Amino acid sequence: TSTGGSIRQELTSLFGASISSTFPDAGVQPSVAQTNDPKFGDYQCNNAMALFAKCKGKEGAPKNPRAVAEAIVAGLPASDLVESTTLAGPGFINVRLSRAWLGRHVGDMLVSGIGSWAPRGQARKRVVVDFSSPNVAKEMHVGHLRSTILGDCLCRTLEYCGADVLRLNHIGDWGTQFGMLIQYIADKRPGGLSAAEDEDVADLQVLYRAAKARFDADEGFKAAAREAVTQLQGGRPEYLEVWRRICAASRAEFQRIYDRLGVELQERGESFYNPRLQATVDALVEQGVAVESDGARCVFFEGRDVPLIVQKRDGGFGYASTDMAALHQRLTEERADWIVYLTDAGQAGHFEMIFAAGRRAGYFPKDREVRIDHVGFGLVMGEDGKKFKSRSGDTVRLVELLDEAKARCRTTIKERRPDISEEELEEATSAMGYGAVKYADLKNNRLTNYRFSYNEMLSMQGDTAVYLLYAHARIAAILRKSGKDVAELAKSTKITLGNDLEVALALHVSRFSEAVEEMLTDLYPNRLTSYLYDLSGVFNQYYTECQVIGTEEEDSRLLLCEATAVVMRQCFHLLGITPLYRI
Ligand code: ARG
Q1: Which residues pair with 172 in a beta bridge?
Q2: Rounded distance, CA 386 to CA 213, Å?
Q3: Where would I find the Arginyl tRNA synthetase N-terminal domain in this sequence (predicted)?
């Protein structure tokens, strides 16, 4: 049986072996896909047509694609996974899996754990994921929430697949906003900037708004604020002190959100790269990658009007300078094999330029293949389809948003279980409330804008976390009702797939690995959510028609229920959702 990886992957190797022995010079990659209609078997190999086109006209070549398909089938190595193959159409090869093998495959997973189904393609790779990354003293808004949720899901998936993941929070802690804040505080406190008078730092959003209003209205203040940034970046001690206190206050606020969501992040803000900026830029200039333009230092790209500005006219550094230094550090010191950035889709152009400049400057190593992705996402809109804001018109504070989702779940759960203990209620509302917010975000194609609606995300029907958490709890209830220790049972009992519904369920359960692989191909978490939602549908069909408890097949069917629950929980885990066993 299998040692990690998906069924599709195993079939791909089998067909690959056949193709490379039957058509050694064709240079064709084997391609195997799931079939959606059981009429055509469980998987399909589509290589015959392309292979035929390649060898047409040559000595002894097959007469038509069907003959190519026949040759591929004849060359398939023996395996206990394939029960039979049939040909369809011009040369499609349909594969029917052995039912005995499939039952064993699921049973083995129950014994060795879901880790045995993790795709191995990313194992031991060093992956840097740059996500969340709010800006100090500015508000952490729903866009950052989206980056946090999507990024955490990708990290969890990569970790499951055995990658060595560095979760980096590239906090905006060094920008021009600090000049404004520090100058504002300094004006208010002519006696000095001591920590004892830091009440203003306690509510950074209020402080930021007040300072920004002054900045926009008062030219003298604007100039003073610019000077303050220069002094801060030049290392003026009392300014650095206030800066540290502002960052600490901000950090505590961000951490409250991360704790609630159960997201782990390592802070490595923009300031970390400050000591490297000048050298980074000088090197770019020396290599001729960056050139002087209007007193600034810029990298130009063909077909783009705006360059990447790596050093401003006044000698200051900005967002792009930091990202160049960060890219270099991640490729060299961190030895990343893969770097992923999560920000709104509006920054796609910025990252394209950063990656291209990095290539031109020779940042990418020659001794290993590096993958680099900007994972963009759309905006979060209000229920009315307009900009997302609170009833009073302000930006929504994330803590309040999460509280609201929780509060709404409380009523629903209490209605269904009036006798629930306060402790259990708290657990259930957190799981459901936060789960609902995360799931609603992840289930949408990340590139589209999505409408944030409590009513929709908390619905018990349809594609929501609430529905799925109930579905899981229902399976847990079946297992409890059996009174059996199902984990023990798995060691002694075979899963027998006696009818089509059982086969369909076992097959869908097994396709979990493929859902994970697909998600990692192009980094769309909605592939995993739709897999999970389909799984609960397939399970429902099975359960409506196959009685479990009190039948002759009880043990085997209980194991299928258990496998479904295990896979659902692993999906929840990858999505960052806490499963519930009883609601
Ligand atoms: N702080 C930025 C923002 O709020 C996101 C940073 C993303 N990461 C990066 N390396 N540029 O838009």
Answers
A1: 135
A2: 25
A3: 9-97
The predicted model scores a pTM of 0.95
pLDDT computed for residue 4 by the predictor: 56
Parent domain of 44: 7-97
Q: Which residues in the chain show pLDDT less than 50?
A: 1-3
Burial 532-566 (b: 16+ CB within 10 A, else e): bbebbebbeebbeebebeeeebbbbbbbbbbbbbb
What distance in Å separates the CA atoms of residue 192 and residue 321, rounded to the nearest whole number? 33
Verify whether ligand 1 is closer than 6 Å to residue 133 (CB atom): yes
Q: Is 323 in the pocket of ligand 1 (CB under 6 A)?
A: yes
- Residue 299 · residue 290 · CB < 8 Å: yes
Per-residue model confidence (pLDDT) at position 56:
85
Q: What SS3 state is found at 468?
A: helix
From residue 5, alpha-carbon distances to 200, 455, 568 in Å are 55, 38, 18
Residue 208 falls inside a structural domain: yes
Cα dihedral 263/268/270/271 (nearest 10): 140
Domain count, the chain: 2
Q: Is the ipTM of this complex over 0.95?
A: yes
The answer, yes or no, to whether any atom of ligand 1 lies below 6 A from the CB of 343, is yes
Last residue of a domain, one of 203, 236, 258: 258
Q: What is the CATH number of the domain that holds 66?
A: 3.30.1360.70
Ligand 1 pocket mutation pick from 148, 170, 178, 395 by most atoms within 8 angstroms of CB: 170
Query: Does the Cβ of 152 fall within 6 Å of ligand 1?
Result: no
Q: What's the pLDDT tens digit per position in 329-348?
A: 999 999 999 999 999 999 99
Tokens of 524: 């769309």
Give the span between the Cα atoms of 6 and 168, in whole angstroms. Answer: 30
pLDDT at 583: 82
Beta pairing partners, 342: 375
What b/e readout covers 290-323, taking b as 16+ CB neighbours within 10 angstroms? Answer: beeeeebbbbebeeeeebbbbbeeeeebbbbbbb
